[in-house]
Structure formats: C-alpha cells, structure tokens
Amino acid sequence: MTVHTGLRVACTVALLLGSLMIAIPASAATTIYQVEVGAPLFGLPQANGAPADGMRFYAPPLNVHKGDVITFTMQGFHTATLLPANVDADQWVVDNALGFGKPYSFVVPDPDEGAAGVKANNAVALPPASGCGDATDPCAYDGTQVVNSGLLPRDFTVQQFTFSVTINANAGSNISILCLIHLAMRLDIAVVADTETATTQDEIDAFAGQKVVRDARQASKTHLNLLATVNSSGHGTLDAFVGYDGDHFALDAMYPRKLELNKGQRVTWHFDQLAFEDHTVTFPQKRGVKIANNSLIPFCDPDGDVGTMADEPANPNATTLAEACPSIDQIEFDISPNFGPPAGNGVVTSTKDFESSGLEGANAGLSDPYTLKFAKRTMDRPYTFVCMIHPFMHGKVLVD
Fold first, then answer.
1. Are 132 and 140 in contact (CB under 8 A)?
2. CA 261, CA 216: separation in Å to the nearest integer?
3. CA gap 235, 261 in Å, rounded
4. How far is CA 311 from CA 64, 102, 299, 304, in A?
5. Do 393 and 243 contact (CB within 8 A), yes or no?
6. How far apart (Å, rounded) are the C-alpha atoms in residues 193 and 173?
7. Where are the domains of the chain?
8. Which of 119, 205, 359, 379 has its CA 20 to 30 A from that of 293?
9. Three-state secondary structure along 189-249?
10. What CATH class has 230-295+336-399?
11. Backbone phi, then psi, for 201, in 5-degree steps?
12. Do 147 and 156 meet the contact criterion of CB atoms below 8 Å apart?
C-alpha cells in the first residue's frame, strides 16, 4: 500500500521490523523474558528466496512465576494478545475474533459511513489506552481480562516495536496468548508456584534459534515444490493457490503467477490451504492496488459512530499516536467498501473487468474456492490480478 504519513507507515501490512531485542534490566526478584513474535524468514539463507514469514511465537510453552515480565518483540504485522486465564482459546476466537464485526475482529462496521462502511477495529489496532506497555511501564495482567499490545507503537520513530506485560495472575493460571491478525499463532503460559522451576531465557533462545531455521527450510521446500507441481497451462479447469501456509510459516505469493489458457477455460483459486493468512484474488491489478491504497487510511472521527460530523484526515506529520488526532479515541482507519466483499459476475472479458474473490482465508472464516472463466483472448495485454491485502502478490493470465 502507498505510504502517506508516519501513521500509515506504522499501520502498513509491510511492517517487517528486523533488529535484535533490547535488553531490559531486571530486579533480583523478577525474571524478564523476551519473546519474538513472527520472523522474516524470507531474509534467511535457509529460505532460499522463498517469500515466507514465520507464523509463531518463537518460544516453547512457558512456565513463569507471578510478577515476571514478558517483553514481546514484533517481527512483522502481529499482536501479542493475552486472553483471560483458563479460557478455551479456540472457543474464544470463534466467539470474539473470527470473521467480521466481532469484538476483536480486525475489520468492523463503520456506521457513520453508511451501510457499506467498514474500518479497522481499534480494539485490535491500538495499544492500551492507559499508556502502559513499554519496558519502563509494563502493562499489568491479572488474568481477568484481555490485554492487547495493538498493532501500532505509540512512537512511530522507534526502530523496534516491543510490548511488555507483567504476569500478575495467581499460580495455577493457564494463559493463552495469540496474534489477532493471524489467529492460529498461539503461545501457552502456565503460572507456577515460586517453589517450582520456571522456564529460562536460554531455553527460549535455543527454541527460537532451532525453529526459525526449521521454518525457513520447510518454507523453501514447500515453495520449490509448488513451483514445480502447480500447472500454469493445460486443459479443463486449472487449479491455483492464493498464498500457501505450512506448519508455522506462510508463503505470500500466487501459485502460479502466470497462467496460460485457451479461450473459455476456467481457473479455480483455492484458499483452504491457509492456516494463518487472508488474501484476495482481484482483477485487474491496477484497480486492486488502488483499492488497497485507499484502505487503512487514518482519519479523526470527532463524534464517534453515532454522530453526523464529517471525519477529518489525521495529522499527516504525526510521529506519535498522540499527535494524530485531538484525542486517541478519535483515531479511525477507514477501509474501502470494495476491499472485503466479492465482486463481478465470474466471467472475464476485458482487462478492465472488476472481478474479486473478496476477503478469504484463515481469519476471515471463509475458504471457498474462487472460479473465473476467461471468455476473451488477450491480445497485447494480459489480464492481471493482485491480492489487495498483500499487493506484492500478483500475477497474470494469457488467453489464446
């Protein structure tokens, strides 16, 4: 997506921050753990160029003591979200986050923009209103409510987005932590008695070092296999994949990127292989990119969803959330009404035809295959398509 402001930079889906975690001084009575959330696998030599992201909290199940602090380092577009203690994480996700318009869904209705209005959910995107979460002022988690990092740091100039939380839940509490953008990313924590042994940072570091290499190698193997086996031409309906997720990694590419068809032939794009990501197939590429660039735009909504006052653009020079709008609770990230729903009639006859699968994948709660018929030959220009969530994912169709 096009970058317009410091706030937009912080919100963009290309938010991949890659530096080492910051050491934080600890008191003698407190252990401070550091956990990486996600990993830019594509930059590792073991990935061999595969367009892969690590989709896990890079730590084993943790045993911690009451009063310990965990600092999460975001290596991508993620949250660290602590659910209330002793809840069933799968059921919580179904009730609260999976799909559209729920308390912790990423996309929710925007009533003051009409029936089709949608926006990003501030309960997901923004850091805690209390101002806690940095190394000097960790958020307090007592096990009774959700504590969420948000997607955005308060200061857009930071080199690394981290979120710190003090575990104040009692011994015997079991805590599930997940990413609200990739709901299958989970970490389990058990609060143990002070007399019991807790996990060490060395154990976390060893786990992370092993798993990041393993994930990169698996991603490379899957990527190469897809390139070799997914047919780009042939008879009948061709099968294609919109991204491909494996065991703790996601491949963000179209498989294949180029399809060669005969007039009247069909392509079916599949989404049921997605365990972490959401994608779209949108024709033509230029229009899909335009829709993407008009989404997640920061505005200030002075009277909330029930008012009639017009939204105003956020401060284009803001370097912190506090500078974006007169008050943080006015911040709103508008999304184009054409971003999420399906569009078109299923038949492509022109390079200008607007056809879209709509938003599908693991977190949208939809995984139906998407089929298009190509009813007219391409001449000097191919039919082009794109994922509106990840505009670097694109491809083309040639029809003979």
1. yes
2. 33
3. 8
4. 45, 23, 6, 9
5. yes
6. 10
7. 6-218, 230-295+336-399
8. 379
9. EEEECCCCCCCCHHHHHHHHHHHHHHHHHHHHHHHHHHHHHCCCECCCCEEEEEEEEECCE
10. mainly beta
11. -65, -35
12. no
Closest CA to 163 of 199, 138, 190: 138
* The token pair that represents 400 in the structure block: 């003979």
Cβ atoms < 10 Å from Cβ of 306: 7
pLDDT one-digit tens code per residue, 369-400:
999 999 999 988 999 999 999 999 999 999 99
Q: What H or E segment, with its residue span, contains residue 36?
A: strand 32-39
Residue 195 phi, psi (nearest 5) = -80, -10
Give CA–CA dist 254/323, Å, rounded. 38
H helices of 97-197, in order, are: 122-125
Enumerate the β-bridge partners of residue 350: none
Structure-token match 């609060």, residue found: 191
- Residues constituting the chain: 400
Let me know if the fold of 6-218 is the same as that of 230-295+336-399.
Answer: yes
Structure tokens of 328? 């943080």
Are the beta carbons of 213 and 247 closer than 8 angstroms?
Answer: no
User: Whole-angstrom Cα distance, residue 398 to residue 379?
Assistant: 9
CA–CA separation, 123 vs 105, rounded Å?
Answer: 9
CATH among 3.90.45.10, 1.10.150.530, 2.60.40.420, 3.40.1390.30 for 6-218? 2.60.40.420
Q: Is the pTM higher than 0.85?
A: yes
Q: What is the pLDDT of residue 13?
A: 34
Structure confidence by residue, pLDDT tens digits, 79-118? 999 999 999 999 999 999 999 999 999 999 999 888 889 9
